[in-house]
TrEMBL record:
GO terms for molecular function: transmembrane transporter activity. Keywords: Cell inner membrane, Cell membrane, Membrane, Transmembrane, Transmembrane helix, Transport. It is a multi-pass membrane protein. This is Autoinducer 2 import system permease protein LsrC.
Length: 348
């Protein structure tokens, strides 16, 4: 008969983390600085211009950030694997114009079918990026810079001088950006659903956690049996799907789509992910942080406009935020490496 071990009578009961430990954990969250900056920005702007947080003002803030939130979530997946996708603006442009084309040429086509078509086109373009990066073994920066121009050229050749306007789409499709639920526009709720699903995938599934291992050390990830090429390809594929969703919603949000739709958007997306705490060197960060970064950047633009600050300073502030995020991340990485070396030295 096996005896069940018992705790000695004089042994202290096991206790959970102390309040100080919990506080330290919160302070280490990568999303904390961007959250504090966002709250401070909104507070200062509201004090200077109370209309900034009117019901219409809040709705405009949510609408302005929706597209960038979805794109930033996809970009975060790619950056965490130590890559980058510069073609997302061009993918969005192609999908947005194809959305306008479907509504104009196929009367009565269901919105769900259009959304699925946009996701399929985005998946195809993202898969091309993923295959070129994983098979050709060429840096993603170079590959996606090339596909940025290729996809943009395809859109220019297809669209030419054609533009599709709000009147070319069904009223129900345009209502996605007008109707609200509990004060949230419908397309913003779609964006929040995307954030929630991808966040759960990243922390709750083996493939999601593998992306962090790949970004931290690709060679070590291979030694541990992680299919690096397959996971990186999946990240680019998912990024393409999310860019497809963003392209369809863009066609609902804005009055017109054409050959130049999405031009330059990729820089805002990368900036949102980096400012939101996704390490540009890979291996750390969250999609929630990327979403917060997107909200912060769009809020900065709206806040400075409400305060009548020149557009040049808006761009300069965004640039300062990007540099600050990279420097802070680098300092944190150096400190972590130093602590690890000291710990190893004590163990020896």
């Amino acid at each position: 008969m096996t005896a069940t071990p018992t705790r000695p009578a004089d042994a202290p009961p096991s206790a959970g983390p102390t309040p100080a430990a919990r506080l330290a954990t919160v302070l280490r969250l990568r999303e904390l600085p961007v959250t504090i900056a966002l709250i401070a920005l909104v507070t200062v702007t509201y004090l200077a211009n109370p209309l900034f947080l009117s019901s219409q003002g809040v709705k405009d803030l949510l609408l302005n950030s929706t597209i960038v939130i979805i794109l930033a979530v996809g970009q975060a997946l790619v950056i965490i694997t130590r890559n980058v996708d510069l073609s997302v603006g061009s993918i969005l442009g192609l999908v947005a114009f194809s959305t306008g084309t479907l509504f104009a040429t196929v009367p009565g086509i269901p919105i769900v079918v259009v959304l699925l078509a946009g996701m399929a086109l985005g998946a195809l373009l993202g898969a091309i990026n993923g295959l070129l990066v994983t098979v050709a073994k060429v840096p993603a920066l170079v590959i996606t810079l090339g596909t940025l121009y290729i996809y943009r050229g395809l859109n220019n050749a297809w669209a030419g001088g054609t533009q599709y306007f709000a009147g070319d789409r069904p009223d129900a499709f345009g209502a996605l950006s007008v109707d609200t639920v509990a004060g949230f526009p419908l397309i913003t709720l779609i964006a929040l659903l995307v954030v929630a699903v991808v966040a759960i995938y990243m922390v709750g599934t083996r493939p999601g956690r593998d992306l962090y291992a790949i970004g931290s050390d690709p060679d070590a990830a291979k030694l541990f049996g992680i299919p690096v090429a397959r996971r990186v390809f999946l990240a680019f594929l998912t990024n393409g799907v999310l860019a497809g969703i963003a392209g369809v919603l863009y066609a609902s949000r804005f009055n017109s789509v054409g050959a130049t739709t999405g031009t330059g958007l990729e820089l805002d997306v990368v900036a949102a992910a980096v400012v939101g705490g996704v390490a540009i060197f890979g291996g750390s960060g969250t999609v929630v942080g990327a979403a917060l970064g997107a909200i912060l950047l769009t809020t900065i633009t709206s806040a400075l406009t409400a305060l009548r600050v020149d557009k040049f300073w808006q761009q300069a502030i965004v640039g300062v935020l990007i540099l600050a995020a990279i420097i802070i991340d680098r300092i944190a990485a150096v400190r972590t490496a130093k602590k690890l070396r000291l710990s190893e030295a004590r163990d020896v």
